[in-house]
Amino acid sequence: MAKTIKIFLVDGEPNGLKTVELSNWVGQAIVIPRNKLKDTKQRPDCNKPAVYFLIGKEDEEALLSTAYIGEAENLWNRLITHDSSKDFWFTAIAFVSKDNNLTKAHVKYLESRCIEIATLVKRFNLENGAKSVLPSLSEADIAEMEEFLSNLKLLLTAVGYPILQEITSKEQPNSSDPLFTCGGKMALASGRMTNEGFVVYKDSTATTQFSSAVAERNSKNIEKLILNGYLEKKDSDLYIFTKDYVFNSPSAASDIILGNSTSGWKKWKTKNGKTLEEIYKK
After folding, report:
1. Cβ pair 236, 267 in contact under 8 A
2. What is the domain partition of the chain in residue ranges?
3. Where are the alpha helices (DSSP H) in the chain?
4. 245, 248, 200, 207: which is closest to 227 by C-alpha?
5. Per-residue pLDDT tens digits for 133-146
6. Cα 198-200-204 angle, rounded to 5 deg
7. What would the mean pLDDT of 207-217 be, rounded to a whole number?
8. Measured between alpha carbons, how far apart are the two ends of the chain, in Å?
9. What is the average pLDDT value for the chain, to the nearest integer?
10. Which residue among 93, 94, 187, 213 is least crowded, i.e. fewest CB within 10 A of its CB?
11. What is the edge-to-edge ordering of all strands in the sheet holding 238-241?
């Protein structure tokens, strides 16, 4: 069922302070750039219990953004503490209840579940240390918080931060987005077009031999993939993907797999021999 998302630009800036709501939901997201934090002190929605996400990057060489997931009885007070103690973040995204029904136990439950999911899907590097323990809630409260969590995940991805969004799995049957393979120079990879980019799946292999046209670019990208734990050397001829990775384009993926400057739209093919171009462009 289609859902309506309403975005209100508090300061009139598209990348500024904003609130995000979902049709027929009591929750609300507040997106707070760090430089706008002082502007939120008097806002009622920023002085409520909340589960929140701090987003940034610890290292410019990192392929993934960094996130910290927390909960607070008073959102603004907690964010001011993080402003003094955590350097990496540039945006905070918080979720509160418009009807003021979220309690300390509720946001603690949401924090714990969000950390659990984010750890599992591995879309962001997590700053959190020890695992958060689920508080004791009634069966009715758990059902209510799981529904809140489902909408939270949707809005979080909609505003550009898929911290809790699983990558489409290799095994998932999807007739509109079929599985593709790309092979050559002993390498063989499988992948799929997704809403976020082209995902190359775990256990795919890539050649260690690069043509001069891509040698510099591939070397840098391979180095980053290895540094961030996505790729490792299998033998003298091949690298192997140790987990799924989303490339910006199918050509960026096939360049790495084949070691040449390629058109991914022609190199990635279904089991029936149809190219990515034939599936999506013709």
Report:
1. no
2. 5-158, 180-280
3. 75-85, 104-121, 139-158, 215-227, 250-258, 264-267, 276-280
4. 245
5. 888 999 999 999 99
6. 160
7. 87
8. 29
9. 92
10. 213
11. 205-207, 238-241, 231-233
